[in-house]
Design a protein that fits this description.
Elements: H1 3-28, E1 33-34, E2 48-50, E3 60-62, E4 65-86, E5 98-103, E6 114-119, E7 122-127, H2 135-139, E8 142-149, H3 152-157, E9 166-179, E10 185-189, E11 203-212, E12 215-217
Parallel strand pairs: 8-11
Antiparallel strand pairs: 1-12, 2-4, 3-4, 4-5, 4-9, 5-8, 6-7, 9-10, 9-11, 11-12
Length: about 220
């Protein structure tokens, strides 16, 4: 083989590899539509929680488990993403691969005074001593959210949000019940309050729509 051939063949292979990667990314990228310019994400308001009746969510099969999701309330939250974490192992990681830590109200104005840390499905925060607002206010205007995507498109969109983005999540707070093939039952219960703390205080959201900036994924 001539020297020119040895140079051209790797270059051609590289071109095809890059093109293939680009095509794969385009095919697998989540689809979205753009929100109207006037439809802003208003992070100053509290999450909206609504009483619901007769909401049916399809059973989800994961491995040998059937996951039953029982809707507790309709839920809609507009907030700023301050931390996110992907779970690749552990309890319910396939059902809920991402946690978003969110803040709203006046808290987004004071992020320079705050530090957030997600660990083992919790989110903790520390505040500088000179923060101009009561840390107690921060406590009830932040939440750690376990996100269950309602479909593949939303699942693919979840990694795209970045810290500092304004996001809007719509769906349902749910109680998840995993039933194994031997009849074993494991329960995972969402909080339905913004003022609770500690174990059980996180929101578990079955996500039917996700907005990141002006992109809406359904």
């Amino acid at each position: 083989m001539k020297r020119a051939d040895r140079i051209i063949l790797p270059a051609v292979s590289l071109v095809f590899a890059v093109a293939g990667y680009a095509i794969y990314g385009w095919v697998t990228a989540p689809h979205y539509y753009t929100a109207p310019a006037e439809a802003r994400i208003e992070v100053k308001y509290n999450p909206r929680q609504e009483t619901i009746e007769d909401v049916s969510i399809p059973v989800i099969r994961i491995g040998s488990n059937d996951i039953y999701l029982f809707a507790l309330a309709g839920y809609d939250i507009s907030a700023v993403l301050v931390s996110k974490r992907k779970y690749r192992s552990g309890f319910m990681h396939e059902l809920s691969p991402w946690d978003y830590a969110l803040v709203w109200g006046s808290v987004p104005q004071y992020l320079e005074y705050l530090e957030f840390n997600q660990i083992i499905r919790f989110c903790l925060f520390t505040a500088r001593a000179d923060i101009p607002i009561d840390p107690g206010y921060v406590q009830v205007h932040m939440s750690n959210n376990h996100l269950i995507p309602a479909n593949r498109n939303i699942r693919r969109a979840l990694p795209l949000a970045r810290v500092g983005d304004e996001v809007r999540i719509s769906g349902y707070l749910v109680h998840a019940q995993a039933v194994g093939k031997t009849g074993s039952v494991t329960n995972w219960q969402s909080s339905t309050s913004r003022t609770d703390t500690g174990n059980g205080a996180c929101e578990i959201i079955y996500v039917t729509a996700l907005r990141i900036g002006d992109r809406i994924y359904e």
